[in-house]
Design brief:
binds pyridoxal-5'-phosphate, single chain, 7-stranded mixed β-sheet
Length: about 400
Amino acid sequence: MTTAEIKKMADDYIINTYGERPISITKGEGVYVWDAEGKRYLDFVAGISTNNVGHCHPRVVDAIIDQARKLIHTSNLYYTEPQVRLAKRIVELSFAEKCFFCNSGAEANEGAIKLARKYSKENVDPKRFEIITMLKSFHGRTMTTITATGQEKYHKGFEPLSPGFKYVPFNDIKAVEDAITENTCAIMVEPIQVEGGINLPDKEYLPILREICNKNKILLIFDEVQTAMGRLGAMYGYHVYGVEPDIITMAKALGGGVPIGCMATKTKIAESLVPGSHASTFGGNPLACSAALAAINTIVDEKLPENAQKMGDYLKEKFLSMKDKYPVIKDVRGCGLVIGVELNVEGKGFVSECMKNGLILNCIGTSVIRCVPPLIVTKDHIEEALNIFEKGLASI
Ligand SMILES: Cc1ncc(COP(=O)(O)O)c(C=O)c1O
């Protein structure tokens, strides 16, 4: 099918939550994708920080094929080997001791919210239910995760919101302290706010949040849906900032492109979820777990966090030198391979121009260009992207 034919069918049959899309992607390999007309693009969106191991990594493809031949789905009424193997691997690589599997980031955050409330009611104080989240955060699109998300634009029209959430500005310790009451059970925060505009924590912010949580017997939840799996230059964002949460959520890159989410925590906290208290039909499905196991092992074996750190530093440095040359660049910020280039103008036209020249980028809000390439990216890919990026800047 051509892009025009696909677009027509999308208009006819798909609820228009994503607006008009510029191209239809039909194939991916490594850091490249191809559209329906066969044009190749360098993919610096990577399925929105999801294709960390690149498109169709052979180890992930082989794992999916092998598993699909054996068992695609059963249910959580029964054990499966891929599920327990994946849980063990996640535990080996993190502070966590127990995992719950689901299918998306929003669902992982729902699980974290449920667990934080149940654990706190049972172990700290039955009055506890409130969760403090940050302004400009993003936690998902279910009713409770849009409520957790500290951005009004995601709430509009869907009220009434879920009760029990309070918002404070990111990086503002005093606001957190003021927001805590005897009902507070958790603070939920992204190590870096990516969807909120690529906002980095101040050096002391996360360590002080940890101290506040310890002092008040409040759980610290890190939403690492977009930052886990090597993206920030370490397996998890919390490794970069040296602060251990009580509960962590991950999704996106976990499955190497196959939908899967996970909420993980310490055994003592996990014990509040008992048989019947939480579940998912597809959560921990053998196909998704096999893909995720292959993706995680690839991230470790190919040292992708280290590459993310190295390539991220290189890319950021190059953008910073472009900033000196092009006043249209207002700011360059990021960590590992999450880099934002904030423009003084709307980014939409710039993104289209880069796409025309073979580079896929996207714009967060109106003017922050997000660069989140696959973590397998090389200097050659980055040079190729920078040439197109600079051409785009010159055209503004
Ligand atoms: C930090 C964060 N949390 C949660 C989500 C929601 O994940 P999903 O779209 O898989 O539900 C996202 C998605 O962008 C995210 O970036």
